């Protein structure tokens, strides 16, 4: 029998192919309920990972995800959503999938057995970066190649896996291992394991961005208002934080080229937008520091 948990047969779903559709849905939902609990068990490790990533960000480092198949696609998804959400450069959070961009849409399963491919992709890394290797089984040689290169350049590493016996659980510097148990369909790790990975990646990128001041309270103050929906959100954010009407918020956003933080500072400090930009730069772009609201004495 395989020692990879995600390959085990799930006794709760062994007759799923003859169940009524509603029972299939209920079985899958029952299993999905276990995922959040498994992730919760890893809270301390996730928090440590967030602090590590934030620390490296402040050194000018980057967050680089590596994965094969579903895991690789999830890393790319998370990375691709950071620039519009937090106005960071596309270099700051990146995702690599084993087999290259073609593998985003087409399965290239054999590539994960090639450590050299991982080593080559990981040549992007330096000692300020954090490399996150993602795999349900924890065993792709591709990721071992990534970890080898990371070690050579003294790059911090985090492993996300659902298999405590996986190789990356042994090799990565910090390990996050939600044990979600056997999948609904044996071996189909895009299901519970994939859901757990998505939840964890959400926490890593969002948590690190929060720690470096990319939010104010729970407002998305660094978003890029590039369409009508996001412009409306920007207006509401400025109005709520600066406690002004939507009309005043809009007027200031137009003056500041839709820079949310600049608009808030301009209104609250009663200064023009260029002076507001200067004040933000003095405080590293962190609105909470500049306004000094809610900080401990």
What order do the SSEs take from the amino end to the carboxyl end, as H and E?
HHEHEHHEHEHEHHHHHH
Mean pLDDT: 92
Give the CA-based shape. globular
Largest sheet report: 5 strands, parallel
First-last Cα distance: 58 Å
Structure description:
Helix 7 links the parallel strand 4 (156-161) and strand 5. The model has no long low-confidence stretch (mean pLDDT 92). The protein has 297 residues and is an alpha/beta fold. It is built from 13 helices and five strands.
Summarize the structure.
The protein contains 13 helices and five strands. The chain is of the alpha/beta class and about 300 residues long.
State the main characteristics.
297 residues, alpha/beta, five-stranded parallel sheet, 13 helices
Would you spell out the secondary-structure blueprint of this structure?
Layout: H1 21-40, H2 43-57, E1 63-67, H3 70-86, E2 93-97, H4 102-105, H5 115-121, E3 130-135, H6 141-152, E4 156-161, H7 167-171, E5 174-176, H8 192-211, H9 228-242, H10 246-255, H11 260-269, H12 273-282, H13 287-291
Parallel strand pairs: 1-2, 1-3, 3-4, 4-5
Helix pairs in contact: 1-8, 2-8, 3-8, 5-6, 9-10, 9-11, 10-11, 11-12
